[in-house]
TrEMBL record:
Pfam families named in the record: Aldo_ket_red
Name listed for the protein in its UniProt record: Aldo/keto reductase
Alphabetical list of SUPFAM superfamilies matching this protein: NAD(P)-linked oxidoreductase
Residue(s) at site: Lowers pKa of active site Tyr: K82
Binding site for substrate: H118
InterPro entries (alphabetical): AKR, Aldo/ket_reductase_CS, NAD(P)_OxRdtase_dom_sf, NADP_OxRdtase_dom
Active site, UniProt feature: Y57
Record keywords, A-Z: NADP, Oxidoreductase
Organism: Fundicoccus ignavus
Length: 269
């Protein structure tokens, strides 16, 4: 595993697992929560230690159960969760505190490694007020790092201008159809690490053919090349699979390195 050092000084794995359909009926995002921990248990057995969830996924309790059942120490894991950008969780200090308390309870933990504002909304001043509450929980050690998700350059700049503690991460959609370079590069300039959700989507046939050709040189798949491109440029990835073989393939990225020419070619996809 390779790591990136966040602006808080803590290390975060460059690869983790998404979970937004884990523990749900028929593996649907909106499916009923079944409590099934087998998918995450498989990932943990394969070596995944960074786990990404959110209040809106409704399955924080499943993640908490899987971590407990693993028998590994809490400190072995890097857990990310997210506060929804909706009035129920953002309208007041009490609403924010209620959301944090809910996440802690569902995850069955005393601290969360990374806590994100899941989505921005129109009122930037209100976002800052929510952020100030999150900062207080960093001071208490309850949240080890805080960040944002789906913020564009303007929204991120406003928060940077008004924050006491800078966002550690901006989790955005980034894949071969749209690497989202502008916001990732902007964040990098300000010490905010980019994190890619849905990193294996958006790949058309032409791009897949080029990625496959590169992968053949290393005995890797197009998907492994795609993920390697991201981590090699310092972007965290959180692919998700319910299949143990694909989980194993997705984490098997750290025994090869793309050349500069290959990186440039992939950047243009």
């Amino acid at each position: 595993m390779e790591f990136v050092t966040l602006n808080t000084g803590i290390e975060m794995p460059l690869l983790g697992t998404g979970t937004n359909t884990y523990g749900k009926l028929e593996r649907r995002y909106d499916g009923e929560i079944t409590g099934d921990t087998s998918e995450l248990a498989s990932a943990i057995e394969l070596g995944y230690r960074s786990i990404d969830t959110a209040i809106s996924y409704r399955n924080e309790s499943v993640i908490g159960d899987a971590v407990k059942q693993s028998g590994l120490a809490r400190e072995e894991f890097f857990i990310t969760s997210k506060l929804p950008g909706t009035p129920e969780y953002t309208a007041s200090r009490e609403a924010v505190e209620k959301g944090i308390a809910f996440s802690l309870s569902q995850l069955q933990v005393e601290y969360i490694d990374l806590y994100l504002i899941h989505h921005p909304w129109d009122n930037l001043e209100e976002i800052v007020q929510v952020w100030k509450v999150l900062e207080e929980y960093v001071d208490k050690g309850v949240l080890k790092a805080i960040g944002v998700s789906n913020f564009d350059v303007e929204q991120l700049q406003y928060l940077l201008d008004h924050a006491r503690i800078k966002p550690a991460v901006n989790q955005v959609k980034s894949h071969a159809g749209n690497w989202n370079d502008e916001v990732i590069d902007f964040g990098r300039q300000h010490g905010v690490v980019g994190e890619a959700w849905w990193p294996l989507s958006g790949v058309d046939e032409a791009a897949r053919a080029q990625l496959t050709e590169i992968g053949e040189r290393y005995g890797k798949t197009w998907a492994q090349v795609t993920l390697r491109y991201q981590v090699q440029r310092g972007v965290i990835v959180i692919p998700k699979s319910h299949n143990s073989e694909r989980q194993a393939a997705n984490i098997n990225l750290f025994d090869f390195e793309l050349t500069d020419d290959e990186m440039l070619l992939i950047a243009k996809l």
